[in-house]
Amino acid sequence: MSRVLQSLALASLVASLLALPQGPVTAQSVPRQLRIAVGVDADRLDPAEQTTTTVANMVDYMFETLVDLHPTKLTVVPRLATRWQISRDGLTYTFTLRRGVRFHDGTPLNAEAVKFTMERLKDPRVAMALRFLVTPVQAVEVVNDTTVRFRLSKVTPTFLADLSTTQFAIVSPAAVQRAGDRWRSAPVDGGTGPYMFKEWRRGDSIVLERNPNYWGQKPLFDEVVFRVVPDAGTRLAQVLAGDVHMAMLPPAPDVRGLRRNPQVKVVEAASDRVVFVAMNTQWGPFRDVRVRQAMNYAVNKKAILASVLFDLGTVSDSPCPPMMFGYHKVREGGWPFSPGRAKELLAQAGYKDGFEVNFFTPTGRYIQDFQFAQAIAGQLRNVGVRANVTTMDWPSYVAMIQTPLERTRVQMLVLGWAWPVLDCDGVLYGQFHTASHPPRGLGPAFYTNPRVDQLLDQQRAEANVERRKALLKESQEIIWNDAPWIWLWTQKWYVVTARNLEGVLIHPIEKWTALCEPQEPAVGHHCVNWR
Questions:
Q1: What H or E segment, with its residue span, contains residue 488?
Q2: Which of 35, 75, 97, 363 is the 20 to 30 A CA-CA neighbour of 448?
Q3: Peptide bond preceding 439: is omega within 30 degrees of 0, i.e. cis?
Q4: Is 287 left (phi over 0), alpha (psi -120 to 50) or beta?
Q5: Element (H or E) spanning 92, and its range?
Q6: In angstroms, rounded to a whole number, what is the distance separating the alpha carbons of residues 104 and 63?
Q7: Whole-angstrom Cα distance, residue 365 to residue 367?
Q8: What is the pLDDT along the chain (531 residues), one digit of tens a residue?
Q9: Other CB atoms within 10 Å distance of the CB of residue 514
Q10: Is 18 helix (H, G, I), strand (E, B) or coil?
Q11: Rounded to an integer, what distance in angstroms lies between the CA atom of residue 437 and that of residue 324?
Q12: For the residues of 445-458, what is the DSSP string, one character each?
């Protein structure tokens, strides 16, 4: 069957499911499995090596961090640590660990495990793509079984919040050592979370099973199954048919109707996900800033948002999303759409007749990603740039992003960046500092500007809030005009759930909560339910 006929058949199935008569919502027994359809497969399951928010969200079911971000207040709250103290000079953090917690292998959570985890993050054999997060840690000291002390080499304003990211999840030393090279793909018995690793069928599903000895409120479901379903229409069809209980990012054109459909619930929120096209600034035409600026003038972001994403996003006006600390609006409305100006800049740079470029995009990772990439390619053709659109599975995509400059295939690619801490540091340092060039980081534009490096280094060690804002502001203005990206939009984020699944939350950092959140009673407690 051709792709056109397949699409028509799927559209017909979805339409028929949407048209089914709805009966009253009644209480039902809790299903044994919670089935969630996601758009991409994992590339690895080691928490330290996470690169992708969706995969990190799955890993979060198995592993836990010392601290967490409250799902609604976004304040730092206890998790595996019950309290902490910060020295007056901001260089020493002392954590008291939760008593009675055991890893899935039965070994106790203690200060030695925390020390092992942190030292492992600095091990070059561990592919931690965000290693800049751990570089301030000079030493980790075991005070006693339940007390651990971090000594930093410099003041780092974001350090406590950074510890809430999946990469800092505490792992069982015994489990890691037993697993050896298999740890990346089968992290058996190594976490403290409510679910344990059971099975990973690549390209198909990841299965987790209930941890019967979980220290917090016991999980509602016996198993959680993440189904890998790259096609958004298929994800929607599965949730409408009852094959899955939750689907990530079903087709944008259907969201408006789904909001009115009593069979399902649309859970949505603003997101800090900035979506962009990275240009390899060390490749051919993109070495010239005029060419990169021309690419921004050539793309009508507002038109693509309206026609392809159905306005599920907001045009970028800065390298940093608006909801983050340090955000500075560089240009009202973003780069203006001006094909004429684009042609002028291309001609000035010596590309009057344009050029050809390989343009990579994922399928199923972002809202309408393959579709909007095709729309961008169409608009670039109007100024003579012939962008050849190619897609691939997500693990291969991540591997391509992490390839060093001398071997990279990247000339231009679609990417999104949703930082787990609402602070511009992670976006700017993680994408535009020279230290974040692959494979050390995840900045595939290979952008380098000594002044930007200096500003980003300074703000990471600046305790004064206003001075830090000023440093972030200057860096955003320079980066914006250097145009290592085609600035697109900050996307909204949503999932669709079965009507019986209640209490699912969407975090602004683009994660979902579909289980119990073990925050202290003082800051709130949240659990999903099945009715």
A1: strand 485-491
A2: 363
A3: yes
A4: alpha
A5: strand 92-97
A6: 10
A7: 7
A8: 444 334 444 544 444 444 444 333 344 688 999 999 999 999 999 999 999 999 999 999 999 999 998 877 778 999 999 999 999 999 999 999 999 999 999 999 999 999 999 999 999 999 999 999 999 999 999 999 999 999 999 999 999 999 999 999 999 999 999 999 999 999 999 999 999 999 999 999 999 999 999 999 888 899 999 999 999 999 999 999 999 999 999 999 999 999 999 999 999 988 999 999 999 999 999 999 999 999 999 999 999 999 999 999 999 999 999 999 999 999 999 999 999 999 999 999 999 999 999 999 999 999 999 999 999 999 999 999 999 999 999 999 999 999 999 999 999 999 999 998 999 999 999 999 999 999 999 999 999 999 999 999 999 999 999 999 999 999 999 999 999 999 999 999 999 999 999 888 888 888 887 666 554 443 344 567 888
A9: 22
A10: helix
A11: 23
A12: T----HHHHHHHHH
DSSP run (H or E) holding 495: strand 493-498
> Residue 479 is encoded by which pair of tokens?
């980066």
Beta pairing class for 33-38 and 223-228: parallel
The whole-angstrom separation of Cα 223 and Cα 196 is: 9
What's the start-to-end Cα distance of the chain, in Å? Answer: 40
The one-letter amino acid code at 278 reads A
User: From start to end of 147-219, where are the E strands?
Assistant: 147-152, 195-201, 205-210
Six token digits for residue 26: 């009644």
CA distance 432 to 108: 40
Contacts of 454 by beta carbon, 8 Å cutoff, 6+ apart: none
Rounded to the nearest 10 degrees, what angle do helices 369-381 and 289-298 cross at? 110
Q: Residue 267 in contact with residue 497, Cβ under 8 Å?
A: yes
Type and span of the H or E element at 505: strand 505-506
3-state secondary structure of 42: coil
CA dihedral of 117, 400, 494, 491, whole degrees rounded to 10: 110
Contact of 35 with 244, CB cutoff 8 Å: yes
Which amino acid is located at 486 in the chain?
Answer: I
| Six token digits for residue 349 | 């740079």
Q: Which string of DSSP letters, residue by residue, matches 269-309?
A: E----EEEEEE-TTSGGGGSHHHHHHHHHH--HHHHHHHTS
Q: Which two tokens stand for residue 492?
A: 């909204």
- Total count of residues recorded for the chain: 531
Q: CA angle at residue 442 from 440 to 447, to 5 degrees? A: 90
Q: How many angstroms separate the CA atoms of 302 and 315, rounded?
A: 7
Going across the sheet that includes 205-210, the strands are: 195-201, 205-210, 223-228, 33-38, 246-248, 493-498, 264-269
Residue of 118, 106, 104 whose CA lies nearest to 66: 118
CA nearest neighbour of 250 among 484, 522, 482, 498? 498
